């Protein structure tokens, strides 16, 4: 499937009414998905939650928290059939722009080392490894560490 990305028209703040559709994507992508309650809480507490929609279909979504000069990418997901078409880059740039608008000095995130395509994307954008969180993610054979990546923002 090929899609034409229109980043100027496709971003919308995530609403509670989007959560069920987002959860369908979440369950197709992850063995250990977020829960509906976690995602709903992110919206209700005021995190920067976004969906990318074309033709009334959510194709990707992301969540960013920010405060005290730091932004934290909590999730960035692209629906399976749209992966490899530039959506991840577009979402990541959107989050960087939001963090800059919030006057954040740094963006941090955690990523599974086994998620090679995500690690590659973050490195391409200039994120650097700054640490590891041992046993951070659930895995079929116990727990998987998380790489902590950071990007310094320049104003």
| Euclidean distance between termini CA atoms | 38 Å
Mean of all residue-level pLDDT scores: 93
- The total of beta strands comes to 7
Helix fraction? 25-40%
Count of helix runs: 5
Plain-language structure description:
- The chain has 155 residues and is an alpha+beta fold.
- It contains five helices and seven strands, in the order αβααβββαβαββ.
- The protein has helices spanning 7-10, 19-29, 36-44, 87-101, 116-124, and strands spanning 11-13, 48-54, 57-67, 70-78, 106-111, 128-139, 142-152.
- A seven-stranded mixed beta sheet has the order 1-2-3-4-5-7-6, with helices on both faces.
- Strand 2 (48-54) and strand 3 (57-67) form a beta hairpin.
Offer a few descriptive terms:
38% strand; 5 helices; 155 residues; alpha+beta; globular; 31% helix
What's the topology here?
Elements: H1 7-10, E1 11-13, H2 19-29, H3 36-44, E2 48-54, E3 57-67, E4 70-78, H4 87-101, E5 106-111, H5 116-124, E6 128-139, E7 142-152
Parallel strand pairs: 4-5
Antiparallel strand pairs: 1-2, 2-3, 3-4, 5-7, 6-7
């Amino acid at each position: 499937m090929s899609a034409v990305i229109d980043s100027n028209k496709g971003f919308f703040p995530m609403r509670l009414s989007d959560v069920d559709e987002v959860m369908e994507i979440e369950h197709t992508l992850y063995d250990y998905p977020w829960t509906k309650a976690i995602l709903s809480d992110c919206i209700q507490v005021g995190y920067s939650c976004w969906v990318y929609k074309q033709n009334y279909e959510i194709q990707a979504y992301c969540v960013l928290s920010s405060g005290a000069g730091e932004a934290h990418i909590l999730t960035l997901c692209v629906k399976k059939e749209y992966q490899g078409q530039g959506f991840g880059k577009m979402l990541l740039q959107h989050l960087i722009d939001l963090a800059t608008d919030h006057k954040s000095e740094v963006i941090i995130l955690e990523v599974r080392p086994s998620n090679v395509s995500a690690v590659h994307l973050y490195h391409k954008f200039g994120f650097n490894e700054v640490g590891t969180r041992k046993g951070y993610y659930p895995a079929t054979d116990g727990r998987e560490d998380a790489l902590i990546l950071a990007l310094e923002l320049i104003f």
